[in-house]
Amino acid sequence: MSDHLFYQTRQTRPFIERAEGIYLWDAAGQRYLDGASGAMVSNVGHSHPHVLARMSAQMQSATFAYRLHFQSDIVEQFAARLAKKAPKGLDKVFFVSGGSEAVETAIKLARQATLARGEPERFKIMSRLPSYHGSTLGAVAVTGTPPFAEPFAPMMQAMPKVRAPLHYLDGLDPEDPGTAAHYLKEIEEAILAESPESLLAFLVEPVGGASTGALVPPKGYMEGLRALCDKYGLLLIYDEVMTGGGRTGTYFAADQYDAVPDMIISAKGLGGGYMPLGAVISRNDLVDDVLDHGGFLHGFTNAAMPLAAAAGMGVLDVVEEEQLCDRATRIGGVLFDRLRDLQSAYPFIGDVRGKGLLLAFELMADGQSKQVLPKELNAHVKLVNIAYENGLIIYSRRTRNGTEGDHFMICPPLITTAAQTDELVALLDKSLG
Ligand code: PMP
Q1: Among 263, 287, 321, residue at a domain's last position
Q2: Pocket of ligand 1, candidates 42, 128, 133: which has the most ligand atoms within 8 Å of its Cβ, to mutate?
Q3: Fewer Cβ neighbours under 10 Å: the N or C end of the chain?
Q4: Which residue windows are coiled coil (predicted)?
């Protein structure tokens, strides 16, 4: 580790030399296949010439102009394109620099909208256990991963959590309508236990991210959640930081449910790793109410930076021109089947799940009992390190129930070809072996 930098641990990695497509090279010339798109970020791959060209063109005009001093054509155009991607009625965009900032923005917008409506008693955000919504204190308060929150508990207002629909552990069929009903009943009970008029919003990843290991909700769950939010007056906020940008097969995962949220939070694949970028896309009337009621008390210096918008526009061009949403479905389907083949070969792969190219597998003592591996094994770190030595990057977490369970995200860039999928699977096979 350098003398001056610090991250989460003292673990060191080689220095990055260059990155192109789905590969990165370290200073010693070792090549790595990016099986996690960084942290589910590099949706269009690294160093895409089109994105670099758009950024370069923007750099010749203006990289930064403070949004309260100047409007910017490219920022306006980008907002309009995102609004078009979002469900009807969600046309108002606030740009920030990443996922946590976007979560904070959504929470503060929701709160100010309810104040504008004259319902000051609504302030609690209900979310799920497990879940991940970011690392700033407000986002930690709504994140359902207890170890991430415990040290800060005295400094935060505790926010209510309900259990995510872990149907694969509960032995329930995700296609059976009774399964969603089972988990929705738990949510309704939690809402009633909290006194519903104190609840402001329900925050949910429409396909789970790293905390659940790509948990796909059972059939009818999102629609039922929408109905519960309507019944008790909660806003429904989709955290699409990881699912957005085409990763699950549509630009936003919201398109795959008959349940329209009141806000969508986007980041990661939005800037694609070219610039720090996040956004909240909100229902128009919520924003209008807030602006008519004294303004939006919020702001980040770098929000709506023209250079970041140029990067985002370039990434969006590539997603559209190379039809990467369809490709996520197609290549994701192939990869899912190949992961299932590995599951047949290795009984300690207890589950394979996900949607599009948001895929994961979970290591267990065995697939029958669904018991987690002993903590001392440190499997979630070990397998990542073995894969790394083999030139494959994967992303892991030990948070099945918010605290335990070893799962691994397999989320290569959406530009991954069939041949590169074979290569990824071969490297993973070798590492598992
Ligand atoms: N929400 C979700 C669903 C995420 O996956 C993440 C990042 N892993 C965040 C929010 C926070 O985003 P960031 O790290 O860009 O602040």
Answers
A1: 321
A2: 133
A3: C
A4: none
Residues 224 and 353 in one domain: no
Q: Is the ipTM of this complex over 0.90?
A: yes
How would you list the strands of the sheet with 278-283, edge to edge? 90-96, 278-283, 263-266, 235-239, 199-204, 124-129, 161-163
The pLDDT tens digits of the residues spanning 53-70 come to: 999 999 999 999 999 999
When divided into structural domains, the chain yields a total of: 2
Centroid of ligand 1 to alpha carbon of 265 (angstroms): 10
Helix (H) / strand (E) element for 227: namely helix 221-232
- Do residues 34 and 107 share a domain? no
Q: What is the CATH number of the domain that holds 407?
A: 3.90.1150.10
Q: How far apart are CA 141 and CA 157, in angstroms?
A: 7
33 shares its domain with 64: no
Which residues span the domain enclosing 69? 52-321
Ligand 1 atom 1: residue of nearest CA:
133
In eight-state DSSP terms, residue 253 is G
Task: Say if ligand 1 is within 6 A of residue 133 CB.
Answer: yes
Quick one: DSSP state of residue 152? Answer: G
